[in-house]
Amino acid sequence: MKIALFGPPGAGKGTQSKLISEKFSIPSISMGDLLRAEVRKGTALGKEAKTLMDEGQLVPDSVVIGMLRDRLQGSDCDGGFILDGFPRAISQATVLDEFVKLDAVINLSVDDRFLIQRITDRRMCPCGTAYHLVFNPPIRPGVCDDCGEKLYQRDDDTEETVLKRLKVYSEQTKPVLEFYRKRGVLREIDGNKSIACIRHALIEILDSLPQ
Ligand code: AMP
Questions:
Q1: CA 179 to CA 5: how far, in whole Å?
Q2: Type and span of the H or E element at 48
Q3: Which residues have CB under 8 Å from 115's CB, separation 6+?
Q4: Which atom of ligand 1 is nearest to the CA of 49?
């Protein structure tokens, strides 16, 4: 099962891909998490990426495509994987198509008016689990339910940067939908619904894919 979750920032890609990863025992590969790991390590690549991420811009293809190729070579990807946040441009979809044929690209469409609150009230754990102060709060405020680490707010989850990220999404990422529609692998889910409803819809789609 090789799938990608698609949608604007705040659509719930990260939350859903983690849930689906547990259910189907396949890795969830978040390009944003891979980049943030480089930032935390303080590598040259991480420093370059951080400047762009804080501005809400895309990191160059030359960086993200290499990182994805390396990650997909992991033996845990042999039985399939879920991509979260890749591809984010037609150029990325074109290169990916040369080395991986995705079985499904699932678009979580969400009204713009919900996205800003979803992102600015989001809190993250370094382990990658995402919370929302209102819709999906942790059991103990400020602490991850899964690993007990302290939660933090991403530097790019401010209202100002979110607006830039949404612009980048509509100009550079949204056109990728057409690429996958033409290949007949695009599926749609109403991402305005609750986490549980979206998870249910996703599982239905994944269960219906040819084995
Ligand atoms: P995310 O965690 O998916 O919200 O991604 C956070 C940031 O990482 C984005 O705003 C981009 O700066 C960068 N990023 C993530 N995925 C990609 C990608 N496929 N191509 C370029 N930049 C990316």
A1: 14
A2: helix 44-54
A3: 8, 9, 10, 11, 162, 166
A4: 12
**Mean per-residue pLDDT over the chain, rounded:** 95
* CA pair distance 135, 204, nearest whole angstrom: 23
Is the N-terminal amide bond of 210 cis, ω within 30° of 0? Answer: no
Q: Is 52 in the pocket of ligand 1 (CB under 6 A)?
A: yes
Cβ-Cβ contacts under 8 Å for 17 (sequence gap 6 or more)? 5, 28, 30, 82, 83, 84
pLDDT digits (tens, 9 = 90+) for 183-201: 999 999 999 999 999 999 9
Q: Considering 2, 13, 71, 199, which one is annotated as catalytic? A: 13
18 in catalytic set? no
CA 152 to CA 177: how far, in whole Å? 32
> How much is the pTM?
0.94
Q: How confident is the model at residue 210 (pLDDT cuts 50, 70, 90)?
A: confident
DSSP type of residue 114: H
85 lines ligand 1 (CB under 6 A): yes
Helices assigned H by DSSP within 79-174:
90-99, 112-120, 159-168
Residue 146 identity: D
Rg (alpha carbons) of the chain, rounded to whole number: 16
* Distance, CA of 84 to CA of 33 (rounded, Å): 9
